[in-house]
């Protein structure tokens, strides 16, 4: 009998090791919408932040990277100013890795996380606790490490696919497809929505995000636009007061980021502007703060303010091509619960 009890204990310990940090796909608070923006801060982030601040009652979450789209956020003061303004106005700043990749080497992974946290802390004064993996891809080993380092790993339950020009064929069709998808999802009036977008994309900033906020009708249905932390009932813990992992084993691995070094003016940077054509004289596809009293939920037509000559290829290569993963956490909990019941029912 004693040996049988030891076997029970061994099985329980083994199963408990399966239950660790899990992906968070959805909000837990009723009537909340968490708008999330990946891959910034970049050239369109300032415009988005300015627009959101003007709305007054809107809070969103940014999953930022340090070095991804050129020019890099770590080098451009304007991008960092947008990050700080977002933070200072109550928007959540979270990590999306330093270079939009996760190393298989845990030491390199930790170094990259540390470097990104340092960057965000240098700009905002806070270290993020929330994290989203590039493309949403984080294997079991990665997830376990993030759990050990006290990160909350965020996925999504509503994907605008704003990056996917290839399937749609054009930016115009991409906007129409994204908004039509959102109309169907919003018609379901679910408990909450955790929505994925990219502030590195002009049409998202100019059209899709404003449509959600002003023309979707969700505010009129009683939904609130909040940060991811708030939609999870965790508003006071979106940041950590100090580093939650030891620096003793990587004192020489974290890149020192100085707030005054390596800053460039994007208006004078030839490499970043060679492929941009200015169409600023054309009418905006959607004008924020529409004063009309009648809600128009039709899909707006697109006229981009700035467009890369090869923007389709640029964004398909560089934006987060995000594939939703199937959560297996509930299966783990079910197995553990069933095993405990069977073992101790004899």
From TrEMBL:
Record-level Gene Ontology MF annotations: hydrolase activity, acting on carbon-nitrogen (but not peptide) bonds; metal ion binding
Domain NodB homology: start-end pairs: 31-226
Superkingdom assignment: Eukaryota
Signal sequence segment: 1-21
Segments passing through the bilayer: 327-344
Claim: Cell membrane is one of the keywords in the record: no
Bias (Polar residues) ranges: 275-284
Record-linked InterPro entries: Glyco_hydro/deAcase_b/a-brl, NODB_dom
CC cofactor: Co(2+)
Segments of skewed composition (Low complexity): 287-299
SUPFAM superfamilies xref list: Glycoside hydrolase/deacetylase
Pfam families xref list: Polysacc_deac_1
GO biological process terms on file: carbohydrate metabolic process
Disordered: region residues: 241-299
Comp. bias regions, Basic and acidic residues: 257-274
Entry keyword set: Carbohydrate metabolism, Hydrolase, Membrane, Metal-binding, Signal, Transmembrane, Transmembrane helix
Record's keyword annotation contains Lipid biosynthesis: no
Annotated protein name in UniProt: Glycoside hydrolase/deacetylase
The species this protein was found in: Neocallimastix californiae
């Amino acid at each position: 009998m004693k040996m049988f009890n030891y076997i029970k204990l061994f099985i329980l310990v083994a199963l408990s090791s399966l239950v660790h940090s899990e992906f968070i796909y959805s909000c837990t608070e009723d009537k909340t919408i968490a708008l999330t923006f990946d891959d910034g801060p970049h050239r369109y982030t300032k415009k988005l932040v300015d627009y959101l601040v003007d709305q007054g009652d809107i809070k969103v979450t940014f999953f930022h990277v340090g070095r991804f789209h050129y020019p890099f956020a770590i080098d451009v003061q304007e991008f960092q100013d947008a990050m700080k303004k977002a933070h200072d106005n109550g928007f959540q700043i979270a990590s999306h890795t330093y270079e939009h990749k996760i190393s298989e080497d845990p030491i390199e992974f930790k170094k990259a996380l540390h470097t990104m946290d340092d960057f965000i802390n240098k700009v905002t004064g806070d270290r993020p606790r929330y994290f989203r993996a590039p493309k949403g891809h984080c294997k079991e080993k990665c997830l376990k490490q993030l759990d050990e380092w006290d990160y909350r790993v965020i996925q999504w339950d509503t994907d605008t696919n704003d990056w996917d020009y290839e399937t749609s064929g054009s930016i115009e069709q991409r906007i129409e497809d994204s908004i039509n998808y959102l109309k169907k999802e919003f018609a379901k009036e679910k408990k909450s929505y955790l929505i994925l977008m990219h502030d590195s994309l002009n049409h998202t900033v100019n059209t899709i995000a404003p449509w959600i906020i002003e023309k979707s009708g969700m505010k009129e249905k009683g939904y609130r636009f909040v940060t991811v932390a708030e939609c999870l009932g965790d508003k006071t813990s979106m940041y950590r007061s100090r580093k939650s992992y030891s620096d003793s084993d990587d004192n020489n691995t974290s890149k020192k980021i100085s707030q005054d070094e390596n800053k460039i003016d994007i208006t004078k940077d030839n490499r970043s502007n060679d492929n941009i054509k200015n169409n600023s004289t054309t009418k905006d596809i959607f004008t924020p703060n529409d004063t009309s009293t009648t809600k128009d939920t039709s899909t707006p037509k697109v006229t981009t303010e700035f467009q890369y000559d090869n923007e389709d290829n640029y964004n398909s290569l560089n934006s987060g091509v995000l594939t939703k993963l199937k959560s297996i956490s509930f299966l783990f909990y079910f197995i553990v619960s069933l095993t405990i019941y069977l073992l101790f029912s004899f």
